[in-house]
Amino acid sequence: MTQSFDFAQAPGHLIRRAHQIAVALFMTELSGEDVTPVQFAVLNAVMDTPGIDQVTLAGRVAFDAATSGSVIGRLETKGWIRREPDHADRRRKILWLTSAGHDATVQMKQAVERVQANLLAPLSSQDAQTLTALLGKVVAGHETENLVVEQIKD
Questions:
Q1: Fold assignment, 10-143
Q2: Across the strands, what pairs with 53?
Q3: What is the pTM of this model?
C-alpha cells in the first residue's frame, strides 16, 4: 500500500502559495504604480548600486540575462532607467535611475515595506524572524546549484 502524500503540507506547495500571497499583496499595495515585483527588484538594485552593469544586476536580482534585459527595457520605456554602453566595453550596459525613476522607487519602497509587514502579520515577531532566516538558508543552500534563474514573466 502506498503512503499518501499530503500535498497541502509540502514545502514546495507552501512556498508557492506564500509567493502567490506575496505577489497579490504587492500588486494590491502598488496598484497605482504600474510596476511588478520584478521591476521593483531591478529599480531597488539600481538605486542601491548606481552604474551597475546589466549582467551583475541580473545576478543580484536572481534573473537570467534575457529576463532582466526585457524588464530593464520596460523600465527604460517608462523613463525610470537610463542604460548606456560602457566606454571601456561597448557590449557592457551600465544602468542608472533617472530622477523620475529615483522618485518612483523611493515612493515604492515605503509601499513594499508595508507589503512585507502585511505578509508576515499572521506571525509573531520571533516567528517572522525565524521564517526569514530559514528561507534565507534554503535560498543560500541552493544558489550554488544555479537554481535561481527565473523564467517568470514580469
A1: Arc Repressor Mutant, subunit A (1.10.10)
A2: 94
A3: 0.84
